[in-house]
Design a protein that fits this description.
The complex is a heterodimer of chains A (624) and B (385). Helix content of chain A is 41%, strand content 17%. Chain A is built from 25 helices and 19 strands. In chain A, β11 (268-274) and β12 (280-286) form a beta hairpin. Chain A is elongated, with a radius of gyration of 36 Å. With 385 residues, chain B is mainly alpha-helical. Chain B has helices spanning 3-6, 12-17, 21-41, 50-69, 72-96, 116-134, 143-161, 166-182, 187-207, 215-225, 236-246, 259-262, 274-307, 311-335, 353-371; strands at residues 98-100, 103-109, 112-114. A three-stranded antiparallel beta sheet of chain B has the order 1-2-3. In chain B, α3 (21-41) packs antiparallel against α4, α6 runs antiparallel to α14 (311-335) and α13 (274-307) runs parallel beside α15 (353-371). Chain B is globular, with a radius of gyration of 21 Å. Classes of the chains: A alpha+beta (624), B mainly alpha (385).
Chain lengths: 624, 385
């Protein structure tokens, strides 16, 4: 009995120890689990808990402004008034919206959107009722705030273009980013890009300088509870947004606006350039559009109206339109002939109105001919026969090389996209493109800027500036305080002086093609210029017989393009101006607008007025 | 043999002298940790939980000492009646129980609302201890000797399973099996039953778990095996619990500094998930401290069981200890995502009146067993002897 009892005790003790052992194993296992979670994987869970604890509210940066050369804002940010709804404070949403409807119109669509959003998100999160309210509505909401529980007036920022259509092409516009924009941006920018109300540059400078203009988003760190309600804000641990940089342009808002208005509703473009530095003073394309319409999202109707307009308002003609330069190109041919010593300034060539080349007849624009003309006269009167001869003497290779030196067919980077390079043809090009041999006829055509030669208004301006200053200017849109005059193009001063004298003669000497213009219209300041006509359609013999004599008689689409390049002052060039009027019916459509624009530029610049100019010369001499 | 060790104290003073103060102290430590954490998860406030918890602990500790004074004969006398009452209460829950969170576990008894399943956890131990106390040793391993205890365990287990409360069912089963094992069931029998059990589990596996468990229980299993399953629904608690624990690190974020605990990422944290708040604010060190205190409590209780002379006290002590240990293991394993979600609180730390009182009552019995360890009540007495 006693032995049995002892055995029972032992058995119990043994089994108790087995159970304790199991318990010990279990406890050790739990301790190991805690060690794994709390010590080994602590970092991971700490981050997860911080994720829970903190929310970062994105603070969008203020977009940099775009300023003209004098600091006048061309693109700026204006306050946008909006109404927000906080469902939690509003009580019954339908009733709250009914009350609000007394002060502003609320479409059924807007109502449905608000109610849907309210159902989807936490009740303390604000919903935008309407963006960009007018001041009357906004102040009415402010005034009646006590009756409008849960409705908060709020001020945000929206892009504004005070000059409207005048800068639409060059400055561009901003819009809400689409999926493609988000893909093309760095991943870390995605949150900012998806922020409601955030806009991204879509065209022009807004797009080209997006990274400078954008700035960087800030973050307001807030501590939130499990339901996402903000417990407190932590401003000292937050990062303020960095406003974008202002971009200063070389454009002059006054000139740009004037040029835009001067061209009116023509399908035209104007380029004004500083002939020494290449700074673009104006870059205009008409007709234009109001970029402000695009910021908030343009309506389908407005957009298709813009797209279907035959004057192509969405097309940036001054950099994307290319036209045969016509007679304006004669300045280059004249310079080349003089530079290569292929023509004596006194040599005359007789113009009878046409010349024969093999079986083909080449005409002068003046059917009755100019009679004997020297180089000066030929430039002045734009005699085609003289320049056929010059082109023939030069040959296409030398002509091509000189054209390239004046920027024809060259790609210029002005810091926005879409700049076209135009074309200077040569035998290699013709063979490659059409597999045809180059003939003297091609050279003749090139000599008067027709045929395959094509240039954008921007390139015409570069060509004008290079003729006027003798410098290899490159066009630029961005103001650089350190900008120096460009290096010389390397042509003899004598050759250039003779060409310039001819260009001055165009305007100021009797018989000049633009003599009727009457000059610049500023006392004591002369200008130089050259007309050009780009043929769009040749009037056939039958049409001529049936009475179609004139460009006026042709439909708009078939009329010739009118070109005019000019610069002033003629004796000390400072500004070049080019106007191209599509289907203007001839160069006369371009001459007056170009002259008016040039006059305004010169008038605005005190240093180009005679008195000041004289003073400066005296100072120069005193210093020497 | 020293005479005083063989004797059983009879008067109150003598009994108090024999009280196992080590065990009392360890229990008080856990209770204090509970008060502290409940104060913390209320955002540094005595209400709504910490004050109530302290009050219940106070009442419970007094009750514990009072219970410890009663002689084993008394408990043996109430063993079967207590079991019958507990079983009736479980039936009552089925008939007129109060439903909370979809499970019917409470029953209103006038002013107090009790959870009969908690009472049954003690009652089952009583009944089994009493049964084996009276059963001749040689009959332990026999069909006729094994059938009554299996019925004693089975009846409440089925009732509780129907509430439904899988956690308590498993707890009742584990406790019952532990007591049978400690009563001396022979190893070969255990192997046979274990083998049958294993076949049963394979059968269940082939049959498909989803045909046996309720939908919400099956979801918990799915949630357990895949943390990404329904992360804002059924997996929200388990996932947030792990984040709360893991973010505590070695030494924790500091008292009242736990962001998860303070900002309400774990709703109802004061009950089953209180351990995660402790782990967040006191880190690995704090969690280990709680596990260590529990280990000491269990070791102390097992030592008491071994020191007892009567089978009744031994099995009573070991049964209660098993229940208690199971609470701790299951709770900590659940909140650290080692087990699917089963509603088991952490004793003395989680908020909840019935559990605090039941646990302290259980330790009252263990302390009583220590005081009366040398008592040898007669075996084989009648049903109410």
């Amino acid at each position: 009995m006693r032995a049995d009892r002892q055995e029972q005790d032992l058995k119990f003790t043994r089994r108790a120890l087995i159970m304790s052992g199991l318990g010990g194993v279990a406890l050790t296992g739990l301790a190991g689990r805690l060690y794994a979670l709390q010590v080994l994987e602590n970092e991971r869970y700490r981050l997860l808990s911080e994720d829970n604890q903190f929310n970062y509210y994105l603070l969008p940066p203020s977009r940099g402004r775009i300023l003209d050369r004098f600091g006048v804002p061309i693109a700026e940010n204006r306050d946008s008034y909006r109404a927000l709804l906080v469902p939690e404070q509003a009580g019954d949403l339908e009733e709250a919206l009914d009350r609000l409807a007394q002060y502003m119109p609320l479409s059924d669509y807007t109502r449905a959107r608000i109610l849907r959003t309210a159902r989807q998100q936490e009740r303390f999160r604000a919903i935008t009722i309407e963006d960009d309210l007018d001041w009357q509505t906004f102040s009415a909401i402010n005034l009646n705030a006590p009756d409008l529980a849960g409705i908060t007036p709020d001020v945000g920022e929206v892009r504004a273009y005070p000059y409207g259509a005048a800068f639409a092409h060059v400055v561009g516009y901003v819009q809400s980013p689409n999926d493609e924009d988000i893909l093309n941006n760095p991943r870390e920018a995605e949150r900012l890009l998806r922020h409601p109300g955030f806009r991204i540059g879509k065209t022009g400078i807004e797009s080209a300088r997006e990274m400078d203009l954008r700035g960087s988003a800030g973050a307001l760190k807030t501590e939130v509870n499990a339901r996402g309600r903000v417990i407190r804000e932590l401003p000292d641990q937050s990062e303020p947004p960095q406003a974008g940089q202002d971009v200063v342009m070389t454009l002059d808002a006054d000139i740009q606006r004037f040029a835009h208005e001067r061209l009116g509703q023509e399908a035209a473009s104007a380029v004004v350039m500083d002939v020494n530095t290449g700074e673009l003073i104006a870059l205009v394309s008409t007709p234009s559009f109001d970029p402000n319409l695009f910021v908030g999202g343009i309506s389908v109707r407005d957009y298709s109206a813009l797209r279907e307009n035959d004057h192509n308002p969405l097309f940036h003609k001054s950099i994307q339109g290319t036209y045969p330069p016509g007679s304006t190109f004669k300045a280059v041919v004249a310079a080349a002939a003089l530079e290569h010593g292929l023509v004596d300034p006194d040599e005359t060539i007789r113009c009878t109105g046409s010349t024969r080349l093999g079986p083909r007849e080449f005409h002068c624009w003046r059917r009755q001919g100019h009679g004997p003309v020297n180089l000066h006269e030929a430039v002045k009167t734009s005699c085609d026969i003289f320049f056929y001869e010059m082109a023939d003497r030069l040959g296409i290779d030398r002509l091509y090389d000189m054209a390239v030196r004046f920027g024809v067919g060259q790609q210029f980077d002005i810091g926005i996209s879409g700049v076209r390079s135009g074309l200077m043809p040569n035998p290699a090009w013709l063979r490659g493109r059409y597999n045809e041999p180059w003939t003297t006829g091609h050279t003749y055509n090139a000599g008067i800027g027709q045929g395959a030669v094509s240039m954008s208004p921007l390139q015409l301006a570069v060509m004008t500036a290079r003729v006027a200053s003798g410098r290899a200017v490159e066009p630029t849109l961005y103001r650089n305080a350190l900008a120096r005059p460009a290096p010389y193009i390397g042509l003899s001063e004598e050759a250039l002086t003779r060409v310039r004298a001819g260009l001055r003669g165009v305007v100021h000497e009797p018989g000049g093609t633009s003599y009727s213009l009457g000059g610049l219209g500023i006392e004591g300041v002369e200008m130089a210029g050259k007309t050009g006509t780009a043929q769009v359609y040749s009037i056939t013999a039958e049409e001529r017989a049936s009475g179609v004599r004139d460009q006026e008689d042709l439909p708009w689409r078939l009329r010739d393009h009118g070109l005019f390049m000019c610069y002033a002052p003629a004796d000390r060039p400072k500004y070049a101006c080019v106007v191209v009027v599509e289907h203007g019916g001839g160069s006369s459509a371009a001459t007056r607008p170009a002259r008016d624009i040039l006059r305004r530029v010169v008038a605005r610049d005190p240093s180009s007025r005679p008195g000041v100019f004289a003073d400066l010369s005296r100072n120069d001499r005193g210093g020497a | 043999m020293a005479v005083f060790r063989e004797t059983v104290p009879r008067d109150l003073q003598g009994k108090l002298m024999e009280l196992n103060w080590t065990l009392v102290l360890l229990l008080v430590l856990l209770g204090l940790a509970g008060i502290g954490m409940l104060y913390s998860v209320a955002g540094g406030s005595w209400s709504p939980w910490a004050f109530n918890h302290a009050t219940r602990l106070g009442v419970g500790l007094v009750a514990m000492v009072v219970i410890a004074m009663f002689p084993p004969r008394f408990w043996m006398g109430v063993s079967y009646p207590a079991y019958v009452v507990a079983l009736l209460l479980l039936v009552l829950v089925e008939v007129m129980g109060v439903s909370i969170n979809g499970a019917q576990r409470w029953v209103d008894l006038g002013p107090i609302r009790v959870q009969p399943s908690e009472i049954m956890k003690l009652a089952i131990v009583f009944a089994l201890a009493r049964y084996y106390h009276d059963l001749p040793t040689e009959k332990v391993t026999s069909i006729s000797g094994l059938l009554p205890p299996l019925m004693l365990i089975g009846a409440p287990a089925i009732l509780v399973l129907g509430q439904p409360d899988l956690g308590t069912t498993l707890l009742l089963g584990a406790t019952g099996v532990a007591v049978i094992f400690m009563a001396g069931l022979s190893w070969w029998f255990i192997l046979v039953v274990g083998g049958i059990g294993l076949f049963g589990m394979i059968g269940v596996g082939l049959y498909g778990l989803e045909n046996i468990l309720a939908d919400y229980q099956m979801d918990r299993v799915r949630a357990f095996t895949n943390p990404d399953f329904d992360p804002l629904g059924i997996n929200y608690h388990p996932n947030q619990a792990v984040i709360t624990l893991g973010s505590g690190g070695m030494t924790g974020k500091g008292f009242l500094e736990g962001t998860q605990s303070q900002l309400g990422y774990l709703p109802e944290m004061q009950t089953d998930y209180i351990f995660t708040a402790l782990g967040e604010e006191f880190g690995f060190v704090g969690g280990i401290a709680i596990l260590a205190i529990n280990a000491l409590i269990m070791a102390q209780a097992v030592a008491i069981a071994i020191s007892c002379k009567s089978p009744f006290l031994r099995l009573l002590t070991i049964g209660i200890t098993t229940t208690y240990a199971s609470y701790v293991f299951i709770n900590v394993a659940m909140v650290s995502r080692l087990l699917p979600v089963v509603g088991v609180p952490l004793p003395l730390i989680s908020y909840g009146g019935t559990v605090v009182l039941a646990v302290l009552a259980g330790f009252g019995l263990i302390l009583g067993a220590h005081i009366h360890r040398n008592a040898e009540p007669p075996r084989g007495a009648g049903l109410f002897g």
